Amino acid sequence: MSNNDVKDLNxxxxxxxxxxxxxxxxxxLRLIRERFAKERPLEGVRVSACLHVTTETANLMRTLxxxxxxVVLTASNPLSTQDDVAASLVVHNExxxxxxxxxxxxTYYKHLSAALDHKPMITMDDGADxxxxxxxxxxxxIPNVIGSMEETTTGVIRMRAMAKDGMLxxxxxxxxxxxxxxxxxxxxxxxxxxxxxxxxxxNILLAGKNFVVAGYGxxxxxxxxxxxxxxxxxxxxxxxxxxxxxxxxDGFRVMPMEExxxxxxxxxxxxxxxxVIDRKHFEVMKDGAIVANSGHFNVEIxxxxxxxxxxxxxxxxxFVDQYELKDGRQIHILGEGRLINLASAEGxxxxxxxxxxxxxxxxxxxxxxxxxELEKKVYSVPEEIDREIARLKLDxxxxxxxxxxxxQVHYLNSWQEGT
Length: 419
Hints:
Blueprint: H1 12-23, H2 27-39, E1 46-51, H3 55-66, E2 70-75, H4 83-93, E3 97-98, H5 105-116, E4 122-125, H6 129-137, E5 147-150, H7 153-164, E6 172-174, H8 179-202, E7 210-214, H9 218-229, E8 233-237, H10 241-249, E9 253-254, H11 257-263, E10 266-269, H12 279-282, E11 289-293, H13 303-309, E12 310-317, E13 320-325, E14 330-334, H14 340-343, H15 350-370, E15 378-380, H16 383-396, H17 406-412
Parallel strand pairs: 1-2, 1-4, 2-3, 4-5, 5-6, 6-15, 7-8, 7-10, 8-9, 10-11, 11-14
Antiparallel strand pairs: 12-13, 13-14
Helix pairs in contact: 1-3, 1-4, 2-3, 2-15, 3-4, 3-15, 5-6, 8-9, 8-15, 15-16
Keywords: Cytoplasm, Hydrolase, NAD, One-carbon metabolism
InterPro entries: Adenosylhomocyst_ase-like_sf, Adenosylhomocysteinase-like, Ado_hCys_hydrolase_NAD-bd, NAD(P)-bd_dom_sf, S-Ado-L-homoCys_hydrolase_CS
Function: May play a key role in the regulation of the intracellular concentration of adenosylhomocysteine.
């Protein structure tokens, strides 16, 4: 494959304008890029990144490049690529990109292979596909790899499973677990962008609808909060008693999916697990039910089961497939069951991705410096990086906070004083 595979290089100018627009909302990453350009801490390192190809990702790639990295980018989801952004990175930044919105699975894995042909020293994943393919099919590349970063909950789960089985061949930094990532990106970013994707795809009114949120992790919390803000009656389904209890205390109805399936108007999965909405749930859903996913992979909705149950299928709107069941009921699947916030919308707002990608950039620098000293397991982002990103974000927002006095520091580090 040549040094790029994108839809149309003529889209590049429009992509550049949108990348520049996103940059206005990414002051932390901009500050890091300015430092990287002066210090060149990534000089000579080959980076292969498997991420959603969006305007925000483009600014991360520009930052790594400013730091001296030799970067290649491929898509982490067949429906999430913004084709004008992919074109701009190739034309204006000379970064090889392998990503086309709507590519089939064969092309998707060809693109992963092309990114691995770069012989990366550091990889960057959003869902762990790149690292998994390397471990399964391209093991000759592993000795070159210093380490990797993982952006998503789904990917971190996969990486920890690999480490537990003794199969992980290099250290991985769980960028997803940084507080400045999951507190903000997962909660506020996923919450807003998922609502955006559902509304763009369907143009329905959320107020008064029964909105079922499957999973009450940080992404589910964010979506439940935003759906309630739009006037929906939010129902949460969970398998873990702790977040289920939290959802109850936050004022949401909590019940098993089998019960929710009978009364829900809109469903969205955010769990990272398999068949969260299954055949038995489709069997009892209302006529006209809308089903979407905002977890990383399209396995959370058992679409093959729905296919078997259906007598007809048609595309009624862009990103809306209508399945007609034998009894005449119609169920609508959004975005082929893939990430609806990126399939029909633009993903997270740039201001939250600013913190996520600042973590990616600084974790890349950290891995390049320290990766050879680390064990072959999954690591959290160092706390000093997380706190520095929070500090920079507050500065950019012109928000000031207090600092401890010497007396307060002494008190917090002592045990002698009591009641």
